[in-house]
Amino acid sequence: AQKITQTQPGMFVQEKEAVTLDCTYDTSDPSYGLFWYKQPSSGEMIFLIYQGSYDQQNATEGRYSLNFQKARKSANLVISASQLGDSAMYFCAMRETGNQFYFGTGTSLTVIP
Amino acid sequence: EPEVTQTPSHQVTQMGQEVILRCVPISNHLYFYWYRQILGQKVEFLVSFYNNEISEKSEIFDDQFSVERPDGSNFTLKIRSTKLEDSAMYFCASSSAPGGYFGPGTRLLVL
What we know:
The structure holds two protein chains of two kinds.
Chain A: E1 4-5, E2 10-14, E3 19-21, E4 24-25, E5 32-39, E6 46-52, E7 60-61, E8 64-69, E9 74-79, E10 88-96, E11 100-103, E12 107-112
Parallel strand pairs in A: 2-12
Antiparallel strand pairs in A: 1-4, 3-9, 5-6, 5-10, 7-8, 8-9, 10-11, 10-12
Chain B: E1 5-7, E2 10-13, E3 19-24, E4 31-37, E5 43-50, E6 53-57, E7 65-68, E8 75-79, E9 88-95, E10 101-102, E11 106-110
Parallel strand pairs in B: 2-11
Antiparallel strand pairs in B: 1-3, 3-8, 4-5, 4-9, 5-6, 7-8, 9-10, 9-11
């Protein structure tokens, strides 16, 4: 079974609108962390947001928020007020106990002016 | 702003040759990682390093791979005998807290 599943290979959003990028995960570890990274066409990996498995509240970082639904094992990224510069690949990742990371296949987001 | 640096940015090598990819993590970070990304594919975890030893490694990280922290600043990934399928972007990352800061990557091409 895949550890991280991103079912949306590509997404489009109108500038200034909100968009949700889906991520589901599979783990039996009680302690884990969930991450979202952005990879622009230039290739670098940019950390966006983190959610710990024991965190009671959903993580937020500026225009990014993580919709953490533990029972459903989902960790969707919500980007509010999309900007043209948000066009990029977005990767969901999970760290299990022991510090091993698993990445999803990514979602390509295109923001339309 | 502190950043992770990697050298070289690009490396071309012949199959069977050894390569060493170098990384300088952010100075007060304690956790170090290597990842690779084959062109157009997802990022794959290779190894994590803490307290001068490997804390976790993936199935990809077989005997041809090794990591070292030879001094207080550098963190290296050595591939002993490169194969064609080792062609990828290799990212180093470091962290002191959840998240991890990635370096710009080294693009390795094995011919």
